[in-house]
Automatic annotation (TrEMBL), chain A:
Protein's name in the database: Hsp20/alpha crystallin family protein
Transmembrane regions: none
Taxonomic placement: Bacteria, Pseudomonadati, Pseudomonadota, Alphaproteobacteria, Hyphomicrobiales
Every SHSP domain range: 23-132
Pfam families given in the database record: HSP20 (PF00011)
UniProt record similarity statement: Belongs to the small heat shock protein (HSP20) family.
InterPro entries xref list: A-crystallin/Hsp20_dom (IPR002068), HSP20-like_chaperone (IPR008978), Small_HSP (IPR031107)
Alphabetized PROSITE patterns for the sequence: SHSP
TrEMBL record, chain B:
Protein's organism: Bradyrhizobium zhanjiangense
Superkingdom in the source lineage: Bacteria
Protein name: Hsp20/alpha crystallin family protein
InterPro entries in UniProt: A-crystallin/Hsp20_dom, HSP20-like_chaperone, Small_HSP
Family: Belongs to the small heat shock protein (HSP20) family.
Pfam family, one: HSP20
Taxonomic classification: Bacteria, Pseudomonadati, Pseudomonadota, Alphaproteobacteria, Hyphomicrobiales
């Protein structure tokens, strides 16, 4: 038999479900640019309306993974009339070439654009090859 | 080997199979939001009024313009995507350039009451319904 606390948690979840907007939520894929400078790799992803606390950036086994959620709770209670874009979770992975200095990865989210700077490790930096 | 007339539905089925195979392959990778009109728009109803939410990541407020008419709003401007000098591009999905979209709504808008706010790459435009357009309850005597 469920305890009083478990019942309260279940009731709270039900209430949260009802309060969610009725826009269909699904996994979407943010647009991304990747470019390289002498300092390293830059990955820029578009995620308008996403809060920085809702984004998770990880590098594992040379794979950069960006996960998160577009929270539309501030529009709860509003009746959607016409919808064109996706709301819900997003996920994007990129296999990185070369070794990244993970301790120096920098991330900034501004105006709905997430900019990631991934410095290449010293060994992975490009070297000019002399043509003989 | 026997030969017969081609079934026209076979052609359609072949087309469908090819399309599904293309979508299932790695060539297109994941579909991104760059497909479709730009900027994407969501419209909500808030009582008698409307709220338009427009996705405009990385757009400067100074590059953004809104015009309103009786039952439509026009959002136009420019989205700039810049890369540093001497950078080599590995992947380019973000769209840049000029955009122009008009959203028609089935109600009369009060142009003087329109409010717009740009935050976190989202433009929110509040569109109040004109008083003259609001439904009135008729008292039966």
């Amino acid at each position: 038999m469920a305890s009083k606390k478990e019942l309260q948690v279940a009731q709270k979840r039900e209430l949260e479900k009802k309060e969610e907007t009725t826009i269909p939520a699904r996994i979407f894929v943010p647009n991304a640019d990747i470019y390289e400078t002498k300092d390293g790799l830059n990955v820029v992803l578009e995620m308008p309306g996403v809060d920085k606390n809702s984004v998770d950036v990880r590098v594992e086994d040379d794979v950069l993974k960006v996960d998160g959620k577009l929270d539309f709770s501030k529009y709860k209670g509003l009746q959607p009339v016409y919808t064109e874009y996706n709301i819900g979770h997003f996920s994007r992975s990129f296999r990185l070439f070369g070794k990244i200095d993970q301790s120096k990865i920098a991330a900034e989210l501004k105006d709905g654009v997430l900019s990631l700077m991934l410095p290449l490790a010293e060994k992975a930096k490009p070297r000019a090859i002399q043509v003989n | 080997m026997s030969m017969g007339f081609a079934d026209p539905f076979d052609t359609l089925l072949d087309l469908q199979r090819s399309l599904e195979a293309t979508l299932a392959s790695d060539w297109l990778q994941d579909l991104t939001t760059s497909r479709g009109p730009f900027p994407p728009i969501n419209v909500f109803q808030q009582g008698d009024d409307l709220l338009a939410i427009i996705e405009l990541p990385g757009v400067s407020k100074s590059d953004l313009q809104i015009q309103a008419k009786e039952n439509s709003i026009r959002i136009f401007g420019r989205k700039a995507v810049d890369y540093p000098e001497e950078s080599s591009l590995h992947r380019r999905e973000r769209v840049s350039g000029e955009f122009d979209r008009t959203l028609s709504v089935p109600v009369q808008i009060d142009p003087d009451g329109i409010k717009a706010e740009y935050r976190d790459g989202i433009l929110a435009v509040f569109l109040p319904r004109a008083e003259s357009d609001k439904p009135r309850t008729i008292k039966i005597t």
